[in-house]
Amino acid sequence: MALLKWPKPGRNGSVSSEDAAEGRMPLMEHLRELRNRLVVALLGLVAGIVLGFVFFDPIWTFVSGPYCGLQQSQQLRGECTFLILGVFESFFVNLKVAAMFGLVVTSPLWLYQIWAFVTPGLYRNEKRYSLTFLAIAVPLFLAGAALAYFVMDTGLAILLGFAPDNAVTTITLDEYLGYVLVLLIVFGISFELPLLMVFLNVIGVLPRATVAKHRRMVIFIMFVFGAIATPGGDPFTMIALALPMVILFALAEGVMHLREKRAPKGEDFSHLSDDEASELPDDAGLPGDDSPLDLNTNGTDPAR
Question: What is the mean pLDDT of the segment spanning 247-259?
């Protein structure tokens, strides 16, 4: 893979459209491309946030569902209750809910912008997988966010269950939204990691043998990551994040194995560095010569 393919500029210093389409642009052109992609992604996110403000009430009913289904949420007034401790907290609650809605709804757009920035730097045989990976990336992110939503109530019940009997366990709106936002982002992005593994394998960066060699360490790191990344650190949420990651990791490794098994076998030069030349085969001779060239120490043919 070549993320930066340096072209030969024309007489006026410009880059041809063919070179730009294939990712062969100067560094400044890549930075401008990154800026344009970020602007499009941010504009889409802003549009999603505005839409979240318009439909705040049904969105909030959906977001607050995991907490309002718990007994602890009704201890104060007999109905689901949150606390607001600041003057501006109500506005920021609306903003956070709208931002979460915009982040999830516009995920196909900003995932596409990320992928479209990387794709032009790939070779043609690597571009074949672009649409396939993008089509898989969006459902994986949404699946991770959906799983976070469905395990949220159990995680909250475990965390709030440690409160003593004479304590009121009502939480603030800001704390609850922070918990929800972290879970959605962590679960959504974590589900993308196995897809990234397969992509790196397709472009030849990550061989399956390397993954198999460090399999136990990777699984251990997944559980550690689940314990650190999930807010509150309850064991249920940690396992709910780590187990799907392990399953997706196994599926990714299986895809890598099948792909390498079906790929044409050739000489393996992966152990060589970029500046190290590969060895010539023993039977290498001069062009058009059917027999190997045998030279003595004087550099002449001994047959002469």
Answer: 86
One-letter amino acid of 304: R
Distance CA 173, CA 186 (A): 20
Upper half-sphere CA count for residue 191 (Cβ side, 13 Å)? 21
Question: Measured in Å, how far apart are the chain's first and last C-alpha atoms?
Answer: 48
User: Would you list the DSSP string of 51-72?
Assistant: HHHHTHHHHHHHHTHHHHTSGG
**Residue 172 carries which DSSP code?**
B
Cα angle value 268/199/279 (rounded, 5°): 15
Cβ–Cβ < 8 Å for 186, 244:
no
The answer to whether the CB of 210 falls within 8 A of the CB of 7 is no
Q: Which residue has the tokens 């976070």?
A: 148
pTM score: 0.64
Q: Is residue 13 very low, low, confident or very high in pLDDT (cuts 50, 70, 90)?
A: very low
φ/ψ bin of 187: left (φ > 0), alpha (ψ from -120 to 50), beta (otherwise): alpha
